[in-house]
Amino acid sequence: MNALALPVVLPLLAAFLVRPVGLVSGRLASAFGPLVLLLCAGLLVNIAVLVQGQPVSANIGAFAPPLGIVFYADSIALLFAIVVPVFALLLWPREAMQAGGDRISALMLLLVGAGTGMALSGDLFNLYVFYELLAVASFGLVAASGTARAWAATVRYLLISGFGSVLALIGVALIYAQTGTLNLAQLSEFAPELLANPLGLAAFACLLVGFGVKAELFPVNAWVPEVYATAPKRVSALLAGVVSKLAILVVLRLILLVFDTPEARQLLLVLGLIGLVSGELAAWRARDLPRMLAFSSIGQLGLLFMAMSIPGVPGLVAALAVALHHLLMKPALFLLAERWHGGLENLAGAGRKAPLAAGLFTLFALSLLGVPPLPGFWAKLVLLLGLGEQDALLAQAAIAGVLLMAVVEAHYLFRLVGLLYARNEHDAPPHRMGDLAVASLLGVVLLASMPLLPALAEGLGWMAHQAADVTAYRAVILGSTTAGAAP
Amino acid sequence: MTMNPPDLISILILGGIGLVAIGAVGMAVSRHLLRLVLALAIAEAGANLLLVLAGYRWDAVAPILAGAGATQPMVDPVPQALVLTAIVIGVGVQALAVALLIRVKEAYGTLDIRELKTLVEHEICGAAGIAPPESANAPGTRQPYPVPATSRESA
Hints:
The complex is a heterodimer of chains A (about 475) and B (about 160). With about 475 residues, chain A is mostly helical. Helices cover about 75% and strands about 0% of the residues of chain A.
């Protein structure tokens, strides 16, 4: 399955071709990026159809694993790999279409190439490299808005991200010193013997915090509010919706394959709970919409980390449900915030001027809260049921935390919905058609998934079973003959 | 004075951890952005050193020196390749950071993180059309005396 490398290679190559193409024809250059993304999305869908749900792997450069780098595509990896170009297309920045937008196009293409690579790679150091590339592309996209406050926010983002990279490198060093390999399949083989010790837990903590920077994990999320408030809203939507999920996917692979220990899961639960509580409380206190969304995003991702702390298939299903729900919600909300970026009290009456936008906002707010018929309810229910299965005191505290924070969430979201429909003259400019169209599309997907929930649940369960099957992962990557052979 | 090799390696590991610690403390306590970038560079150097040490053998030669007929053992080449990549990434990110620092200094005239935080907060609030929060340096309680007009302007 060497075609697996194409959706990663093509955007990376195209990123460096945007400029030369722009010299030939400016119009061609502005269409070049979206066309490449369309091609990538098509390729990935084609692969997904061809493999029919069976996991496949590709050895890069024909070097066999564990020495060579390997790409691995099971249904979860393919799902997230498809999400990256599709959402990049939906959230393609307006500036990239204008004259001189080729730099932003190039950064977007780099982001997509690196993001797809993160979804597919099966090698820890390769993941680190893609992660860094993704980070640099996102620094560029945030800074490209060209305002001084965006530069200052990017510096902060860069420093925190850089510190996370140092931690991730230390984690890689610890793992390599213990096991002598960085191939995830081989690591899964050695982990029970070599990494189920305090040093292994330290390595996991380093990697978790390192990759957690992008996933807005608790101790390293100080960049979130400033960046989301100053970056173009489409970039914020991409960072909160898609980039965070890719970091989550890496953590998910690590916990499934390598660090499947109760201590590691406990760490996830504690950090997730702190993230949830701090994020929701900060969102409650926020006074402008972008930062309210940023803080609530921290809270939602805290929920996601808590879901990942549940062992086995139920935890995976919960994590997937919360992740996909957040993937739909946050980009749409940020698109609506494009025109409603002012302070919350300035939004009084805004909904009467823009009924569609306000209706969509209310829909997303209800689903975010988990009001019963909407998919958000199911995502939270699966999470709570999973936490309820465990009889540890911590899990019970976590359930209490989730329920309590739902009340806080309800308060600040309903306060805003009430403000939107307040009787007040509001003179904000209307939403752009493009933003409203994408937000409506996401809203329609959300509503359409409602009657399909049983089928969706079954599908997610099947994907979770496949992802949790470590022996199959090893067999696909290392081949049945080489499995178990030490280098 | 001779040192037996295991000691040497543990000293190197301690050095790597020390560099990371110096960098981490530097990042925690510095107020100047350039110092933060430098602290990050030191921490990265420490992490790179630790990564090289993951495959280090005191009695071995560099991988490129072990030709086909060489009898000497060579150190593990994988961490060396990884560190090369990590160094390149680190240099690129630091260059980007310094370029951004120049822009920030030009725009705000300061690289002090606390001053910048206040300035950025004011600018974000200004763009959002809401009153900026009270400065972190201001007293928490209401001021009992009327504030002179001059100090209110400079605040």
